[in-house]
Amino acid sequence: MTKRTLSFFILHSSFFILLAQTISITTDHTQLVLQVNSQKRLCQTYLGERLSEQTDLKQLSMPQAGLSSSCIRGLEAYPVMGTEDYYEPTFEIRHADGNPTSVLKYQQHTQQGDLTSISLRDEVYPIEVTLYYKTFPQEDVIQQWAEIKHEEKGKVFLGRYASSMLYFEAPSYYLTEFASDWAKEMQMLSQELQFGKKVVDSRLGTRANLMAQPFFEVGIGSPISENEGTVLMGTLGWTGNFRFTFEVDNQHVLRVVSGINHDASSYLLPKGETFRTADFFFTLAKGTGEGSRRFQRWMMNHQLHKAKDDRMTLLNNWENTYFDFNEEKLVALFGEAKDLGVDLFLLDDGWFGNKYPRKDDHAGLGDWQVTKDKLPQGIPYLVRKAKENGVAFGIWIEPEMVNPKSELAEKHPDWLIQLPSRETYYFRNQMVLDLCNPKVQDFVFGIVDGLMQENPEIRFMKWDCNSPITNIYSPYLKENQGNIYVDYVRGLYKVLDRVQAKYPDLYMMMCSGGGGRSDVTGLRYFTEFWCSDNTDPIERLFIQWGYSQFMPAKAMCAHVTEWNRRASIKFRVDVAFQGKLGFDIGLKGLSDDDRQYCREAIKEYKRLKDIVWSPNLYRLVSPYEGQHCVVQRVDDAKSKSVVFAYDIHPRYGERLLNTRLQGLDAAANYRVKEICLMPGKQSWLPCNDKVYTGDYLMKVGIKVTSTNDLVSHIIEVTKE
Ligand code: GLA
Question: Which residue owns the Cα nearest ligand 1 atom 1?
Fold first, then answer.
């Protein structure tokens, strides 16, 4: 069947089954072609820029898998463990009789709108694997997942269950990964991929992204750059263990396998039950700039919870008070929040526990009753007082966790993930609740529900998760321990589904000791996430640069704090201005001018937030390359743009270059104006208050950097 007839069918038929040998999956600019070979094996024959309608897809050759020329497969779309291919497989199964292999053969496929499903079957064992490809044509993003099912009697274990396998043939491959640690999230590290495997993965369970973030970029044929060259950008939507394997085989074919990490997770799949893998999302873009704009737009259009709704600026008390607060202090802070002009006050950790009050992080976690002698009038009083001060109220919870020193741990030891007959290892003095257990799911849901029932006016929750899963053993799963990492995440999603269904207006921050949880499926439930506990503005420039590769600004919580007092309050605010702005700072310690600056900046932020949150991001000067950082946002109409320019630590005698803007209308005139100036200060930028054509701004550029240490500028560019 030619592509023309194929796409005719796709466009003009609502639903039917195609028994064709060529399956074409397209977005506006990308095409993936799969073909069935004479052995009924499904193979990838093309992945790249969208082909013209005239291209005869049958001419695509079927490259052979690397092992030997007698191999009858091709680059198989979902290769299995144990048969012909000795490279990293996507799928592994142990049948009830102990046989560890399967051969998956094409059965049929359907294409309905943007969804393609292809079913594969083993002809010897009753197992079925269905591969799904969902396209987001305008955003040029493709989503992949698989569903696995069997009808065998006896115990069947899935050893591997990846979401996706993609193949590339190019002279060279360059990987950028996003290494992390506490306060060091999203460190972009690049390397050329040579023969063999490179694995980026997590086995931490809950605080899954503490050390590795679930994103990657691969330069196909050339090193990764912002605006040039083909780059594959991918991410796994799974709030748990993930694994990306990049393998260059003996024929220099790159294989990219993405999915849930199968380590320590041999999954017992009952007969008739469907195992759905995690979702893998990718785009194939010209440079990471284009890829990021696509991912951000896709997040805003299809993925992020309440993406079209507003977000609230806030004042958080964590770094101001830590655990040391009472009603009087909090009510005074509500006043400060109002004075500052933010929308919401967020009460952090330390408000709960009676038998074991939460005075520090050693006790109380799990006992979600307000500490009576600390807050005698309870949460309702605080919500009311906040309202009287003209700010909404939000509250911190860490519902999946428990301190051994808590009434909960005493009452329900069987609810805790812990190894029987071994010494327990505590991470931040706490343990993880067993969300595989439906009773625990009810309890966790009940924490949110209880707070909301009592205080329907709570607008926001910060849902924290400070510990990885330690002492891995679920008392609920008993002998099926291989299911724990997967079932935990499913249990979490069940709870979050209930929260979302019952409280659709609740805004929630996904937090995990900083950015330990940061995946795109988590953000189907959360309206935003905490990028890092590190709010040093210099570090944040790097962290935000990293997350902006995939995440929209609206979802990236950025707070002004006391970290790095060497940086002025203006510099700190100007960095946080790029994300979802908040404050976590004692305002009394600020000078009048600094406080005034914050108030004015919040007003400007509220005026410009739709542009700040626009997916049209242009990263112009990288902090990784030198001593400056410049980024730009443009609205869809190209009528307004905001430029953020930061001098970090310029070198002596450094020659300053113009910064060329991007994404503007070349033929239009734009006025350039520096905003957010300290009280009484004038802009000294030579471009300030001048009018330029878009052409000039994009080809000649303007000077927005300087040779000063820690200086920042926010510049508004408006079409005249
Ligand atoms: C984590 C969060 C912080 C704060 C503390 C409270 O570390 O990242 O922002 O909420 O927990 O214990």
Answer: 513
Mean pLDDT of 345-370: 98
CATH number, domain containing residue 162: 2.70.98.60
Asked whether residue 281 is domain-assigned, the answer is yes
Six token digits for residue 280: 């893998």
Report the pocket of ligand 1 as residue ranges, CB < 6 Å.
318, 348-349, 361, 396, 464, 466, 511, 513-514, 530, 533
- Which CA distances in Å does 73 have to 35, 38, 44, 256, 709? 11, 9, 11, 18, 59
The total domain count for the chain is 2
Distance 190 CA to ligand 1 centre (A): 30
Looking at the CA of residue 396, tell me the nearest atom of ligand 1: 10
The domain boundary, picked from 273, 303, 333, lies at: 303
Give the sheet arrangement for strand 30-36, strand by strand.
Answer: 22-26, 30-36, 42-49
Within a domain: residue 70?
Answer: yes
At residue 281, does pLDDT exceed 80? yes
Prediction pTM value: 0.96
Q: How far is the CA of 322 from the centre of ligand 1 (A)?
A: 9
Query: 10 pLDDT exceeds 50?
Result: no
Nearest Cα neighbor of 558 from 286, 325, 313 is 313
Q: Is residue 126 part of a domain?
A: yes
Q: What is the mean pLDDT of residues 372-378?
A: 98
CA of 578 to the centre of ligand 1 (A): 22
* 3-state SS, residue 121: strand
Interval between CA 464 and ligand 1 midpoint (Å) = 7
Domain residues for the domain of 97 are 3-303
Among 303, 334, 351, residue at a domain's last position: 303
CATH code for position 638: 2.60.40.1180
